[in-house]
Amino acid sequence: MAKPIELSNVTKAYLEEYQRILKKMMQGMTYVTITCSISENFIKQIIPHQVAAIQMSENVLRYTTNIPVQNLALEIIRTHTEMLESLEAIQNRCCVVQNSEYKLYEYMCAYKEITEAMFNAMCAPPVSNSININYLREMIVHHQGGIRLAQNVLRFCICQELIPILRCMIQTLCEQLEAMEKLLDSLQNCDCEC
Fold first, then answer.
1. Any domain includes 2
2. pLDDT tens string 129-179
3. Alpha carbons 7 and 55: distance in angstroms, whole number
4. In terms of residue numbers, what domain contains 138?
5. Poorest-confidence range of 26-40, 67-81, 118-132?
6. In a domain, 193, yes or no
7. d(CA 127, CA 70)
8. Main-chain dihedrals φ then ψ at residue 35, nearest 5 degrees
9. CATH number for the domain including 113?
10. InterPro entries, per this entry (predicted)?
11. Which residues contact 160 (CB under 8 A, 6 or more apart)?
12. Cα separation of 107 and 102, whole Å?
């Protein structure tokens, strides 16, 4: 059995804040008053996901000295702030698009499966003393979940204003995911700790 890693005080502080952000995101995405509008439900459910990406990135920026990680975190803050503002701008208009109980049930079943997998993976990522590696592992799972959530909602009859935002979201998350996976590979292949 592998010996547990002894975490530095800095890593512990980073992870404590990450856990706080994660808990708030999970509560925000789970305890939503469900209506007959898939569009409205999705917007209310995805907003805490977007906020968490911003807060997770702000958290790593408090500690990292790695320039590629800093640039990535700043990019995530910028793009997720833009997505958040776009979603909030259409929220009150999208609620008028209603769906059948069957479609709502189908949407929610997939939503629960996606979020449970994402929450489980984000609650138990492999932990190291490299805050950069921890951040990338956490954010990779976060983005994978976001892509699946956006793809899920596109299967249904939804608010027309939401569709271009979702397509942009998927493209942005896929691009950032690819960049994170490359950066994680490069960090794991060297001794970069901060």
1. no
2. 999 999 999 999 999 999 999 999 999 999 999 999 999 999 999 999 999
3. 22
4. 9-188
5. 118-132
6. no
7. 20
8. -115, -175
9. 1.20.1260.10
10. DUF305_CopM-like, Ferritin-like
11. none
12. 9
